Amino acid sequence: MVTFHSVGLDDPRATALWAEQQAELFARYGEPDADADFALTMPPDALVTSLLAVDEGGSPVGTGLLRWSPFDSGAGSAEVKRLYVRPDARGKGLSRVIMAGLEEAAARAGAVSIVLETGVEQPEALGLYTALGYERIQPYGEYMDDPRSVCFGKELPTRVLVVNGSIGAGKTKTAGAAFDVLAERGVRCAMIDGDYLCQASPNAPGAAFNQGLYFQNLAAVAPVYRSAGYGVMVIARVVEDPEDRGRYGEAFDTTDVVFARVTAPEEERKARIVHRDLDPAWHEWGHARTVELHAVLEEVQLDDVVVNNAGRSPKETAEELLSLVGW
Questions:
Q1: d(C-alpha 106, C-alpha 5), whole Å
Q2: What is this structure's pTM?
Q3: Is the pLDDT of residue 208 over 80?
Q4: Residue 304: pLDDT over 70
Q5: Which CATH class is domain 159-324?
Q6: What per-residue confidence (pLDDT) applies to 229?
Q7: Bridge partner residues of 68 (DSSP)
Q8: Does residue 209 register a pLDDT over 70?
Q9: By CB neighbour count within 10 A (0-12 exposed, 13-18 middle, 19+ buried), where does 14 fall?
């Protein structure tokens, strides 16, 4: 049985395997790797993850590393480095498992694509990447002018988190705090307050609360965020229509859409409404609407997780929410 560990760039077990890989590549290509010492010069915040595979006897048998690409390979692209399995551990699918771990790490980090460079003298690697759905891309990096170099890329779907909740439940502040937590972790992410994409007067014809206008605008800005390299989107918006999951998926061209609802007791929601705006007319409407909307959200049950936001800081609620959704 093989186990996987996240290790640092200076882990002696990983660096020993990298040296073995370099020796094997030298034997195939007859020259040293131009990027052999990349780990010594790579900025600390460029590392996404470094994985070490260890067999049941405790011996290291494989590695794979993922860094933010320093090359012109597209905004938000993460690059695979040092994918290597010792000869006596090959033929068991370990490279596929390591690549799956790197792809998962890339998605969690908000990458929009994975890129890598290999060569014609590595037919096993060419077959592996093709089988995993990678496609040939424009050459990049140190070997971009070398006819023996082959570069591959794979697009990753955008991950969308929609923070739902009745008026006064704290969805916008929680969404903002979730964005802050993710950003602190180094995730490439962006946040949208959905209400600002559909504020118009008079209302646009069609769906209530300008939902048609909202999703049109969302579909228009989604590719802008993606082209800028943001693979994680946090959105604050009420979700009360069962069709909305599909609409978000269509807007961002993804199936990775999570709905997370925040709740708070009615009196706390009403107190927040008063604190938010001094206009008594707003209080009257907001108090009626928060009761109505809370009942609707409880009935439709569209959320993947529900988090209690009573008497807590936005960051506390956001951290629990992200933990529950596996982010």
A1: 16
A2: 0.93
A3: no
A4: yes
A5: alpha beta
A6: 98
A7: 78
A8: yes
A9: buried
Domain boundaries, the chain: 3-155, 159-324
Half-sphere exposure of 143 (CA within 13 A, CB side): 18
- Tokens 């209400």 sit at which residue? 195
Spatial neighbors of 215 by CB under 8 A, at least 6 apart, are 247, 250, 251
C-alpha triplet 120, 27, 39: angle, nearest 5°: 85
194, 222 contact by CB (below 8 A): no
Question: What six digits make up the tokens of 68?
Answer: 């933010």
Strands 60-68 and 77-85: antiparallel
Q: Which two tokens stand for residue 32?
A: 């040293």
Least confident residue range of 1-10, 79-88, 204-213, 298-307: 204-213
Integer Cα distance of 199 and 197 in angstroms: 6
AA identity, residue 218: L
DSSP 3-state helix, strand, coil percentages of the chain (rounded to 5)? Answer: 45, 20, 35
Fold of 3-155: Aminopeptidase (3.40.630)
Average pLDDT over residues 134-154: 95
pLDDT of residue 205: 77
Give the pLDDT score at 117.
Answer: 96
CA–CA gap between residue 17 and residue 61 (Å, rounded): 8
* Beta-bridge partners for 84: 63
Contact of 149 with 117, CB cutoff 8 Å: yes
Q: DSSP states of 141-158 as a string?
A: STTTT-TTEEEEEEE-PP
Tokens 């990298």 correspond to what residue? 18
Q: Which residue has the tokens 């089988």?
A: 131
Nearest by Cα to 183 from 85, 79, 86, 322: 322
Estimate to the nearest angstrom the gap between the alpha carbon of 284 and the chain centroid.
40
Side chain identity, residue 146: D
Paired with 260 in beta bridges are 163, 305
Exposure pattern of 129-141 as b/e (b: 16+ CB <10 Å)? beeeebeebebbb
